[in-house]
Design brief:
Length: about 140
């Protein structure tokens, strides 16, 4: 029975896993805007299957940044996404450079949102987060 070098076996096992860890068919967008006294940056990755994943960075007036990982679905120009805490976003892609919608907080408060869209944004591949060093509005 031929001996297979351990390195070759590991390479064979790891390469498929690494390839599936990437999401090459996803389209990326960066949404930016303001919400009361805060500003936000949302990195989103859209799959051809209609799923969306991403990260919201909300910079508060005091400079603190809250981070929310979100996941959802799209249907045409409509999008629904939520955070594990129970906050939900329902919106629509209004134009190539604009999105609007409503954030429904878990306590029942609803906040209208109008944001700017940037296509083909450079995001952190693992979670679709907007890079921190580019956080300015």
């Amino acid at each position: 029975m031929p001996r297979i070098p351990v390195f070759a076996l590991l390479l064979h096992l790891l390469v498929p896993a690494a390839a599936t860890a990437q999401h090459p068919a996803e389209a990326t967008e960066l949404w930016t805007g303001s919400l009361f006294t805060s500003t936000y940056r949302v990195g989103l990755c859209f799959s051809p299957r209609g799923t969306v994943r991403g990260v919201l960075r909300l910079r508060l007036k005091n400079g603190k940044v809250d981070v929310y990982h979100i996941a959802g679905v799209t249907d045409g120009n409509k999008i629904e996404a939520s955070h594990s805490s129970g906050h939900k976003f329902t919106g629509r892609l209004v134009s190539p450079d604009r999105v609007e919608g409503v954030i429904a907080l878990k306590n029942g408060i609803k906040i209208e949102l109008d944001g700017k869209r940037e296509h083909n944004a450079l995001l952190i591949p693992e979670d679709c987060a907007p890079p921190e060093e580019n956080y300015s509005n």
